[in-house]
Amino acid sequence: MASPFIELKVGERTVKVTNPDKVYFPELGATKRELFEYYVSVGEGALRAMRDRPTNLKRHPDGIHTEAIYQKRMPAKHPDWLQTATVTFPSGRKADSLRVTEVAAIAYCANLGTIDFHPWQVRAGDVERPDELRIDLDPQPGVAFAAAREAAFLTREVLGELGMTGFVKTSGNRGLHIAVRIEPRWDFVEVRHAGIALARAVEDRAPHLVTTAWWKEERGERVFVDFNQNARDRTVVSAYSVRARPAATVSAPLTWDELADAEPADFDIRTVPARFAKLGDVHAAIDDHAYSIEPLLERYASDDRGDLPYPPNYPKMPGEPKRVQPSKARPAEDG
């Protein structure tokens, strides 16, 4: 028997929604159709965040309590109007990933059970040169969201001294993300170095609050600035993306004034559409100006601390320190 379906208009497209009444978020009773309609309702903002970016999909076709499908390649069967961008992974392998060009593409992926969207920090026109510097503020276990908020304002202060503007959003979980639009002139290694320089500048001002320690055993109860989110093939969840969590929280763009008393739980699949209808996209100005990262690269070059470790699945990089957990390295050094 064929699956039940409805067809909904999204821009100039008609997109099919199969099994629209399937419950994706049992605790809320939110269905697949509600997820689909959510993405259409915030489509302008979601498209701005993902436009022309190769985008990874985190799919839960049978609801959030089932195992996720992490999809970096465009499904073999797809409408001919969906576009792709060819990306290269750290291994050297290539893939044709979804290139988001219209709201209907986001809606189509929602019908595939995509809860989270994870765009690269590059555009399809030049997949080797990022146009976004990403600051991921991740409170470690035992650390409250208020600490991430404090770290975000401190990061804003550092950016302001550099003449740069950052755009802040909730992660949809416990942390915060700040995006800075940059000129697409530098490669992934250089942009990552700029991210390290910025993270260290924030850490140096408040080492009790912020850490750049890659190894979890060294972080303590602080906010970790995940500098490796600027490496090739590392992504953060998109603005306006729903998260596969029981409360269906959303990675919600904020103004800096709002951040002062915002809480992650305030923004979910049911509250954000009304907010968007009232305020529009509060990050609408993010593309108005792109910044040079030269000042950050100069800071990195003059810092004798050098590079920090890459994630374990990356090839060994020039100048990278030993990729060994400190507690495991000490016995060898003592011997």
Concise structural overview:
27% of the residues lie in helices and 20% in strands.
Question: What this model shows, in words?
Answer:
- This protein has 335 residues and is an alpha+beta fold.
- 27% of the residues lie in helices and 20% in strands.
- The protein is built from 9 helices and 14 strands.
- Strands 5, 6, 7, 8 and 9 form a 5-stranded antiparallel beta sheet that branches. A 5-stranded mixed beta sheet has the order 11-12-10-14-13. The protein has a two-stranded antiparallel ribbon with strand order 1-2.
- The longest helix has 18 residues, at 188-205.
Question: Helix/strand-derived class?
Answer: alpha+beta
Instruction: Tell me the fraction of residues in β-strands, as a range.
Output: 15-25%
E-strand count: 14
Order of helices and strands: EEEEHHEEEEHEEHEEHEEHHHH
List the helices and strands and how they pair.
Blueprint lengths: L4 E6 L2 E6 L4 E3 L4 E2 H10 L1 H8 L3 E6 L9 E3 L11 E6 L5 E6 L3 H9 L2 E6 L12 E8 L5 H17 L5 E4 L5 E6 L6 H18 L4 E2 L11 E3 L30 H4 L12 H8 L14 H9 L23 H9 L1
Helix pairs in contact: 1-3, 4-5, 5-8
Descriptive tags:
335 residues, alpha+beta, five-stranded antiparallel β-sheet, globular
